[in-house]
Amino acid sequence: MKPLIEGLQIAIDGPAGSGKGTMASQLAAALGLPVLDTGLLYRFAAWQCLQQAVAVDDEYAVLNVLEKALPRMQWRSEGVFFDAKDCTSTLRGEDVGLAASKVAALPAVRRLLLDVQQQLAKQGCVMDGRDIGTVVLPQAHVKFFLTASLRERARRRWLQLDEQQRRQRSMDDLVKDMTARDTRDSKRQHAPLQRANDAIVIDSTTMRPDEVLDRMLRVLQRRGLAH
Ligand code: CDP
């Protein structure tokens, strides 16, 4: 399938484990568009703070770390590169994710990263995150909001863990961490996780990825945005 307009922007938002990442990659591949995972930016900020032993809730210090690190970072479809080295798999760790949701609650950090995201989105893309349809790309051509039950989202996350991590973490542990992250993401004052009014909600609890993709592509076709 091909986009019918130049600079097509598709926003995908949803909580952890809702399938945003998988669906964003598959949809982007189906349309030949870049895919931009905004979670990686917040993860990158958190990772830099963890490495430099900077408290992730100290807004001024985090901003300082980020302002120095951003010029050395590259963000693209393949992931995040720091000094030209791919650090994406490190950023995907659960501990980095938890710290990321703390960094992401800081308004100054969000303001700084907003510009990075909007600049790169101009080329046309599938962008996934928490506030893409509401704040980053309010004019996106299509917005999807993905959900799934908490248990199913924890199960998906558990399947992504490797052997060693599975021995250390129980499902109940994951459910607890996920609930904490969901609460922090939805309750924060600045750009909380929220469905945009014009977003199409897809509950993927009992759907396979190919079924979700099919649904998304049909929406694009119906709106005359791809064929
Ligand atoms: O993949 P997963 O859903 O576990 O996390 P992620 O999308 O990589 O995002 C990590 C954290 O970054 C989230 O828990 C959010 O707190 C934050 N985030 C955000 O605030 N806004 C975004 N657009 C993307 C991520």
Describe the structure.
The protein contains 11 helices and 8 strands. The chain is α/β, with parallel strands linked by helices and 227 residues long. It has a single domain, classed as Rossmann fold, CATH 3.40.50.300. The strands form 2 sheets. Strands 2-6-1-7-8 form a 5-stranded parallel sheet. It has a 3-stranded antiparallel sheet with strand order 3-4-5. Strand 4 and strand 5 form a beta hairpin. Helix 1 crosses helix 11.
Q: What's the SSE blueprint?
A:
Blueprint: E1 9-13, H1 20-31, E2 35-37, H2 39-51, H3 59-69, E3 73-76, E4 79-82, E5 85-86, H4 88-91, H5 94-103, H6 107-121, E6 125-129, H7 132-136, E7 142-147, H8 150-160, H9 163-168, H10 171-187, E8 200-203, H11 209-222
Parallel strand pairs: 1-6, 1-7, 2-6, 7-8
Antiparallel strand pairs: 3-4, 4-5
The structure holds cytidine-5'-diphosphate.
Residues 16, 21, 38-39, 42-43, 97, 100-101, 104, 129-132, 181, 185 line the site of cytidine-5'-diphosphate.
Outline of the structure:
By secondary structure, this protein is an alpha/beta fold. 52% of the residues lie in helices and 15% in strands.
Question: Are there runs of 5+ residues with pLDDT below 50, and where?
Answer: none
Number of helices: 11
Distance between the termini: 5 Å
Stated plainly, the CATH topology is called Rossmann fold
Q: Into which percentage range does the β-strand content fall? A: 5-15%
Mean pLDDT across residues: 95
Structural domain tally: 1
Helix/strand/pairing category: alpha/beta
- Ligand types: cytidine-5'-diphosphate
CATH class: Alpha Beta
The named CATH superfamily: P-loop containing nucleotide triphosphate hydrolases
The ordered string of helix (H) and strand (E) elements is: EHEHHEEEHHHEHEHHHEH
Q: Could you describe the largest sheet, including whether it forms a barrel?
A: 5 strands, parallel
